[in-house]
Design goal:
Chain A is an alpha/beta fold. Chain A has helices at 8-16, 22-35, 47-63, 104-111, 156-163, 180-186, 220-230, 274-289, 305-320, 338-349, 352-365, 370-391, 413-416, 419-423, 430-435, 464-478, and strands spanning 42-45, 73-77, 115-120, 169-174, 189-192, 212-217, 260-264, 293-297, 397-401, 439-446, 452-458. Chain A has an eleven-stranded mixed sheet with strand order 1-3-2-4-6-5-10-11-9-7-8, with helices on both faces. In chain B, 12% of the residues are buried. Classes of the chains: A alpha/beta, B mainly alpha.
Chain lengths: 484, 95
Amino acid sequence: MDITKLTLSETLQALKTKQFSAVELTSAYLQKMDDNRDLNAYVLETPETALAQAKQADIRYAQGTPRALEGIPLGIKDIFCTKGIRTTSCSKIISNFIPQYESTVTAKLFNDGAVCLGKLNMDEFAMGGSNETSFFGPVVNPWQKERRLVAGGSSGGSAAAVAANLCAAATGTDTGGSIRQPAAFCGITGIKPTYGRCSRYGIMAFASSLDQAGPIAKSVEDCAILLKSMSGYDDKDSTSVNKEVPDFRTSLGQSIKGLKVGIPQEYRPQGLNEEIAAQWDKGIEILRNAGAEIVNISLPHTKYALATYYIIAPAEASSNLARYDGLRYGIRVDGTHLDDMYINSRTEGFGREVKRRIMIGTYVLSAGYYDAYYRKAQKVRRLIRDDFIKAFEKCDVILTPTAPTPAFAIGDKEVLKNPINMWLNDVFTVSVNLAGLPAMSLPVGLSHDGLPLGLQLIAPAFDEQTIFKTAAVLEKEAKFERLK
Amino acid sequence: MAIDTQTVKRIAFLARLKIDDDKIEAAKDEFNKIIDWVEQLNEVDTENVRPLTAVNETKLFCRKDEVKEGNQSDKILYNAPAAEYDYFVVPKVVE
């Protein structure tokens, strides 16, 4: 039996019943990583740390004191600071950075007994939808890898690693779809929780009012287990919310009879990919058959979400990335005076997409343009948020497609021709970040040429339980088969 | 509103980035394309709409003003490109 193919919950059960040891498990994953370097999912492997943690886990099991994730091998997106382990956000500008502290989310996971297999590839500073902006090069989607398709982004390494069984599960972050879109492209499950559910402390900031951490995993149940561990109030992040974290697993298997599922008409634009529309209809049918009531809703400002996002996110990014100046960490390129050093370091250190967004952000925040762009976008952001508040007066959860297309080819000329083409990938996911809501992507079927397609469930703030409850029904009935 | 090359250069300097002279035209065109695209927001009536700056409109609380973690200059300087005598080394800024 290939033990790397088990889900996280199956693995926990197997460890508890001593079907294999944590060291055997970690070794099996390390071997798998070794065999699949061509996917470029990991940018740093940490076998020594992993085996040391696994040994500790075996001691815990022997003593009968295992913690919630004892011995579970995880991949960590390279945006989470890990103490003593190089963390780069896949950017040249901090390609040599070794954090002296641990992010809250990874600290929680490791305190629950998880094992760190290594750091996962991503778009530079999480800016991208295909993992092609990474300083370490793109990730190859494990589905039909000979076709060299993208794994999605920005958490492309996380999604590919989970899909190819190079880790039991992974951490991701989601600013505009960066957990959900790669999860959809790689045929696995990921949830972006409510803004404030997970601490952002120690996660390299992209757009602080939008960034959230979340799990990418092999099943809905695995996401529930991990999210429980990752969530919780943290006084090191002033936007983390002091709310009790429910045991999300208790939502699984609950009846959805009478649950109102909203279907937003704006998510079915003219020319929507027919196969994706068909999967959406299949999802609607599954939920209806399980007793849910399907309700048509409207989110009228949906068409403005992308433009709003591409003002707010670059504005926040330009401010957050001002810290990379060559002074205190990262690479420094000398210059004749201080400004020269800043300019040389930043010009050398940042990639093209990051520079593009810094420029846009600087422009929309600059004197004379602030009101016309940034302030305007913040106002539209409120309208987008209010659309959801109104919609949730009529329904309990919203079902939509996750992405407008299946995975596309690395280096696709049509996509790369114009930066806006890449951004259009986020069309179904960005509104959720602007509104701060929880949303999950889970796989439901395949395209005609065998590529995974995902659906998205959106719930009101801090109601992840409804997502888990609904997702469990979809997962059970869709019978999607993960990659063999 | 079209953005000219001077503006692109000014924004680049504000962002402390350099765009080579032979790339400035292309950068300007791309910049204009993006700004034209986001200007679709002008269609939206936002009269009397308050800007949304934070989704969780909870009150920030004040912690006690006391040192929690201190005396870790070695950790702070660990990743410094250049450090001496417990300080970051910077280029000379005073003539």
